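Hello Y.,

Per our agreement to keep a running log of every chain we model this quarter, I'm adding this entry. I've kept the format consistent with earlier entries: sequence first, then predicted structure.
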Amino acid sequence: MKRNADLMAVALASVVFALWSNRWSGFDLWLTTLLHDPSGGGFPLRRDGIGSMLLHDGVKWMSVVGWMLLVSGWVFLRLRERGRLLLRRRFGFVAGVSLAAVLAVNLLRAMSEHSCPWHLAGFGGTAQFYRLFDALPAHPGPGHCLPSGHAAGAFMWLAALPVLSVRARKAALAGTLGLGLFAGAVQIARGAHFLSHILLSAAVCSLVALAAALILSRKRVPE
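Predicted structure for the entry above:
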């Protein structure tokens, strides 16, 4: 557990700040209102087709390509008669756990009743806003927006932390959190998510990585 304390810290901090942003303060709404331009037709970045496509899809496809390269490396090492067992196991761990993290986020999102900001009254939609753990309002909207699936495409790489050295682990943690927050900022600016949605995506991905690391460490999977 001590080795994976950083994953636990990310999960706890993300949950606490998500609750603060959504339930204990009005920061979610304040930030989204700041980025919304009612006189200009909504969220500027959403209207900017090219900019939105590059920023929104860029991170997603970077992660898709990275994951495919990881799986290709695992297959290559698997096919070699004298492949490097340690590296192959690490590739397999990261590929499997990162995919599990994305699936977990999307499963929770599919069950969520919380709608995206652009569906809410006041931001161009008709749905009612409600905070985490509040009773479901009469008109919650289409839902399926919590946690952020797009941010999970970056936070999924927290799965790499358990198999890295201490120095590489710190760099990977900083890089992954930075990429995830950047992807999340783009989604917030587009009106697609609140800050709390981004933070809860980080929490889910870190908890999946932590659970996998603890389970497999008992089977003596190299870290």
